[in-house]
Amino acid sequence: MKTIKNILLMPLFFFGITSVFSQSVIGKWTTIDDDTNKAKSVVEIYQENDKIFGKVVEIIDKTKEHKLCDLCEGTNKNQPILGMVIMQDLEKDGDTWEGGTILDPDTGKVYKCYIALEGDNKLKVRGYIGFSLLGRTQYWNREIN
Prior knowledge:
This protein has 1 helix and 8 strands, in the order H-E-E-E-E-E-E-E-E. It has 145 residues and is mainly beta.
């Protein structure tokens, strides 16, 4: 009887693990170009020391794959966008991750940032100056393999 109970509970266990994973911001996300509304890049969001970071791991338009961040300042100046960490130091605050920054490699500008899941496979990314009312929101889609 105990074996039958374990067999019946096993799918619930795996469903629970899958649900927890799908509700995480960790993973690969497709960014969308604001002007063309087409996929632009893939950013891998990862956690390090309880903070969230995001790195460009793919540029969709292969003609721009070797583009440098010529408008960036500091250590990112003239560095390849592919492989660049563009999201840094976000900390968990309830249902959002905030308090960090995001870099727009097209302009070289760094903004304050917060991110929040809007469903399992949609990520709200808000970059702003000063306070969050003055900014821009993008929605990124989870890469599903």
